[in-house]
Write a structure and sequence with these properties.
By secondary structure, the chain is of the alpha+beta class. Helix content is 69%, strand content 10%. It has two domains: 199 residues, Alpha-lytic protease prodomain-like (Up-down Bundle); 86 residues, Alpha-Beta Plaits (2-Layer Sandwich).
Length: 295
């Protein structure tokens, strides 16, 4: 089983365990803020399942129907996660509004806080693992899941502060206020996830630093060519698609031009994991004199 799939499967197990702990905390206390935290964990479990399905699809090799691979399946998972985060925020706001209009007593608050603390520690550790592995494996689904879990940790800390303040001051409306703030924080997290995943679906260009590194690799490995121009590159999950035009002398043989292309492709694939390079070879009169100069 590929590493990304194992990690995604682990997210489901962690999500279910954290959800059980938070539901117990809410059941013991009756706090609407703790209920809001539990509702977010329901979303965590659902998105973990979506990420697992997406990662399993993404690691499948290219086939006749999907010649460029299945990498973009992860972006659909990230979009779904963003949408579900927004739904969770709406549910929490509804609970917060009800508690604001009819404040509820909080029972066994400190037992609930201990449970929330335990859940936050688990979430925090797993969020770090997901973000690290997501970046390492170039997995948008895992990284988005990690960012969402880290937001959950922040939300839980805010909820804990609100519960303590409500118990110590007797101002039960603080419980509802903190639940509403959790919802706003979740909405912001959902927007961040959606923005990143939509960029991937729209074939957004790789960062300028990566483009500059690609220009340098082409320049250093295209000895014998005249220039290169119209460089374009995009990420699709774990794959990076690169294409450009390579201008060679008109009298150069096909074999020699092919050898230059092979050198460039090898350098690109060594520098960028999962790199797929397409090179369009052109004769000298096609030079634009404004692209990548060959060293």
């Amino acid at each position: 089983m590929p590493r990304a799939v194992k990690i995604a499967l682990g997210s489901i197990a962690v999500g279910v365990a954290v959800l059980a702990i938070k539901l117990l905390a809410w059941w013991l206390t009756g706090s609407v803020a703790l209920l809001s935290d539990a509702l977010e964990s329901i979303v965590n479990v659902a998105t973990a399942i979506a990420a697992f399905v997406a990662v399993r699809i993404a690691v499948q090799p290219a086939d006749a129907d999907h010649p460029f691979g299945h990498h973009k399946a992860e972006y659909f998972s990230a979009v779904m996660e963003g949408v579900m985060i927004v739904v969770a925020a709406i549910l929490i706001l509804n609970e917060a509004w009800g508690a604001w209009n009819a404040p509820r007593d909080i029972d066994a608050p400190f037992t609930g806080l201990v449970l929330i603390g335990l859940a936050s520690v688990i979430n925090g550790i797993w969020a770090v693992v997901l973000m690290r592995e997501g970046r390492s494996l170039r997995s948008p689904a895992l990284e988005a899941d990690g960012r969402h879990l880290m937001t959950d940790v922040v939300s839980s800390a805010g909820v804990a502060i609100g519960v303590v303040a409500a118990v110590l001051t007797g101002a039960l409306w603080l419980d509802a206020l903190l639940a509403a703030l959790v919802a706003v924080n979740i909405l912001w997290s959902g927007w961040q996830v959606l923005r990143g995943s939509v960029g991937g679906l729209m074939d957004e260009s790789v960062p300028e630093d990566d483009l500059e590194a690609m220009r340098e690799l082409i320049s250093a490995n295209a000895d014998g060519a005249v220039e290169a121009h119209d460089l374009r590159a995009r990420h699709a999950g774990q794959a990076t698609f690169v294409e450009f035009h390579l201008v060679v002398p008109g009298e150069m043989s096909v074999d020699t031009a092919h050898d230059i292309c092979d050198r460039i492709e090898a350098a690109m694939m060594a520098a960028f994991d999962g790199c797929r390079v397409t090179i369009h070879v052109e004769p000298e009169h096609k030079a634009k004199h404004s692209g990548i100069v060959v060293l």
